[in-house]
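Q: Focus on the shape:
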Amino acid sequence: MPDLTAAQHVLRTTFGFDAFRPGQAEIVEAVLAGEDVLAVMPTGSGKSLCYQLPALMGDGLTLVVSPLISLMRNQVAQLSAYGIQAASLNSTNDPAENRDILDRIDAGALKLLYIAPERLAKSDTLNRLARAGISLLAVDEAHCISQWGHDFRPEYLTLGTIRQSLPELRIVALTATADKATRADIQEKLFPATPRVFVHGFDRPNLSLAMRAKSSARKQIAAFVKAHRGQSGIVYCNSRRQTEDLAEALTAAGTPTLHYHAGMDPELRNRHQERFLQEDGVVIAATVAFGMGIDKPDVRFVAHAGLPKNIESYYQEIGRAGRDGLPADTLALYGLDDIRLRRTQIEDSDASPEQKRVEKQRLNALVALCEAPRCRRQTLLAYFGETAEPCGNCDLCIDGVEVIDGTIAAQKALSAMVRTGERFGTEHLVNILCGEETEAIAKFGHDRLPTFGVGREHSRNEWRSIFRQLYAAGVISLDIAGYGRWEMTALGRDILKGQAGLELRKDRLRPAREKADRSASRASAPVLDEADEPLFSALKSLRTEIARERGVPAYVIFPDRTLIDLAQRKPRSMGALDGVYGIGEAKREQYGRQFLDAIAEALGDGAAPEGSRAAS
């Protein structure tokens, strides 16, 4: 059985990485040992490698289930660039291409096959693949199988029956966004027995987090994008019309910006996506139809022109920035109109009452993040069950926020919770605090509580904000999968007893005077000395030229981290490419000479500078 030492050799020679990223090694080791695995890892942490590497080292075919054809194509292009035999069986291939792929499967010539879940569910496909000897099933975006996930897809439910047809099949399921309820649902639907579960944190420390109340969304977004001129970025919009208007306005202001939404002509939509992938410095204004299939590592910023759908969607969408591990900026704008729209969309949807209730709680958690009185990263990670110190890399840590002593208000809210057995949600508790004599208040006799009406100094909206801020501050916790009831944390008990105090934000959803956006320029290609910038630009131009010739995204040739490493090391020979980040044997043979020639042309003839071997 292959071991981790052998895996590290393949990691270096094939993928060009000297070391595993945090969390990868133990997952790879478990898969190599034949265990079923559920892995939750942050976007950009290298989830794909956790099944790609074992696939190369084992016998048989690894089947990869992916939700989007564009994602499959990009993965296959990347693997092919590494010299790995991979293919994607999908409906957009011409018949001859699919026949060729099936012939390669029958001949045992493929190591990885990407396929959509609905195609895999067909009996003829499954029977043919079973004869080919499938050794591993990798389920990408595994949260799609769960009704609690933010992107539930019914076709994923068919995956649970595949294991019954192939009982010896090992499964590795991977996702970046799965809270406790979603993880439990994935296990129940996908695995016949409890798998090894790895939850490697949700923190993306390279992302700068910022949220702003709306004043003029177009002007706010334009200022943010202007500060990132020359960099690739995504601006998420809440309507198709807004993507077109914003793209036009940003282009007129000097930033090449494309629009993208589901209502476009498919050919034009694909052209816009390909240009964004292949060129540097292009911005795309898009609805949420854009993103899941995009694996572009050098996106330097993500902005939301309006409130995202929920906190999981927000986390996944900002996660498309900085996948290369380099600094990237995020900005989300929000307003009362956004919140009303989201609540109306939930109410008008065809979801079950139970699912609507869950979606409302998730929206409330996102609003709590917007109104957070402390470090945004602490609030965001707390939602996923993690604790953290203040990050120093969000707008609240950097700019601060005007606060007031909220200890008494917190004690009133906590008292109402405790006296009602911690069994109720926001609206019932607000009714108690404001002294509203509702039917439910009378039914439970809560109008006789000492806390009934003690909070009349605050409006109902202010109390809602206070509850969201208490949640954001870690004073109370929310039962998302249950009935949205609030529970008191250890910090909440200390506040209720007078052993701790609490500050709350003075501003709520009223647009505040805009502060200078000191976070806006932090993502500009760091780690490079000014003297290396011309060489870096020359290498990017060469990368773009090769990508266009080959019809693949630029990062398939080399990611920015490789170009930065080349610009710093300035290698002058093929041997000197050994140890450069992301250059394995296949890529060295394919592109090494062209990039060495570009370096020589930019610098002139001279001895290659000495440099230490870089770690991944």
User: Anything to note?
Assistant: The chain has four domains: 4-199, 207-353+374-399, 403-505, 530-603. The longest helix spans residues 585-603.
